[in-house]
Amino acid sequence: MNLLRKKTVDQLVQESTPLRRTLGTFDLTMLGIGAIIGTGIFVLTGKGALTAGPALSLSFILAAVCCGFAGLCYAEFASMAPVSGSAYSYAYLAFGEIIAFIIGWDLILEYALQAATVSAGWSGYFSKLLEGFGLHLPVELTAAWGTTPGVTTYFNLPGFVIVLLITWILSIGINQTKRANDVMVIIKLAIIVLFIVCVVWYVNPSNWKPFSPYGLYSFQPGSTQPMGILPAASIVFFSFIGFDAVSSSAEETIEPNRTLPRGILYSLGISTVLYVIMTLIMTGVVPYKEFAKFINAPVAGVILATGLNWLAVIVNLGALLGMTTVMLVQLYGQSRICYAMGRDGLFPKFFADVNPRYRTPFKGTWFFGILTALAGGFININILFELVNIGTLTAFIIVSAGVMRMRRTQPDAHRGFRAPGVPFTPILAIVFCLVLIAGLNWETWVRFAIWFALGMLVYFGYSRKRSKLEPGRSPSDHADAEDGEGAGPALKTELA
């Protein structure tokens, strides 16, 4: 039983069945910004400010540095193996099948849980926007059961509908996805700049004192959660999740060797600058302890403190667009990871089927879109969002370690981009990831262990024997193993 059987770069590229290549550097940067800027600004800054005080800006920088080192490693892999699958495909190259499956399983957790979690926040802002026009949804249909203490809710209808709408856009083609994302990101950035220009004049520097009330890491009397810059960084790390989804678009990217690294790094840089500016302004306008009054809508609370009520409607729109692009990119990455795993035989071929008209993994996109919509609609998953962080940090560690391994085992492989400072860059990425993991609570570790155990049951019960690398099986065996067209033949016919 060879659990560490690997694929080569040539093998991955040869087996890839390119989808419609239309994404350039600008589109990838917009895709990355669309994934990063959303929940971090409009939701997590409230909890982050209570955890770190004004030093939350340093927490964002710490999380960004971690993602920056990891992003350099992703960029090297993306230029070396421009195929769908992101960290899953990279782990297949560097470490072998079982590690690749574990990372793919983690990424499913990352993308699905984040999209479902964001749909809950989207619903709240949508309800507030409607209230501004005198419209009110039945409170029972504004959130999942048990989400809001003291309020009876059963179903998150707005979140359910927006996830299905995004799924429809993703399923009908990358061009439609690209246009929708680009427009929403541009409007979102314009609204954030408007907020900065209008609100910066209300900053009171005395609100920044003390700048770091809880230090780097501490426990306060009566609190079971750690406080300080490091725990806040572990929380707001959630804000940066999504840039890795850019690398999963490799088979839909023009000149991926050049454009993928640029898209990853540009989106990280722009988003970090905006996060730091927004955090400093918000904690400068409102004393950090007062964020407890509006923890779920911190930007709206800051606007309320300034008296610029006209700005509230515009910022609510920006929040909706921000969260919409986050969900769009997460569901996009979800479908492409499962597409790659289905193509390799680790998931049913259903997920690798490509619609000949739209040239997208149509069935897999709708499968996970519906599951995510139901999860966000019925289940209170807010307590699980830290699972997204630990799953993503694990993937970052594997990718960073993979760069060092590939430099040693395949030093002459073509690399359109080489991460600078290897092995120090990936080592620093790993260290920062481990530091952020240490800031998570023990319940997250337990839940992650349960998810890992379920993944091992799937791998040994289904995936291992159906892998294309299983002795005696060939790509053609896999393609004919089940009813329906395989991704490869379908796309070859379409391209011809």
Automatic annotation (TrEMBL):
Task: Enumerate the InterPro entries for this protein.
Answer: AA/rel_permease1
* Gene Ontology, cellular component aspect: membrane
Q: Where is the composition biased (Basic and acidic residues)?
A: 469-481
Annotated signal peptide: none
Membrane-spanning regions, if any? Answer: 21-44, 56-75, 87-108, 154-173, 185-203, 223-243, 264-288, 308-333, 364-381, 387-404, 416-438, 444-462
Q: How does it sit in the membrane?
A: Multi-pass membrane protein
Q: Which Gene3D superfamilies does the entry mention? A: Amino acid/polyamine transporter I
List locations, semicolon-separated.
Answer: Membrane
State if Lipid metabolism is listed as a keyword.
no
The main place the protein resides is membrane
Keyword annotations of the record? Membrane, Transmembrane, Transmembrane helix, Transport
Write out the ranges of the annotated region (Disordered). Answer: 469-496
Q: Name one Pfam family in it.
A: AA_permease_2
Q: Which GO terms describe its molecular function?
A: amino acid transmembrane transporter activity
The answer to whether UniProt assigns keyword Heme to this entry is no
PANTHER family xref list: CATIONIC AMINO ACID TRANSPORTER 4, INNER MEMBRANE TRANSPORTER YGJI-RELATED
Provide the protein name: Amino acid transporter
Taxonomy of origin reads:
Bacteria, Bacillati, Actinomycetota, Actinomycetes, Bifidobacteriales
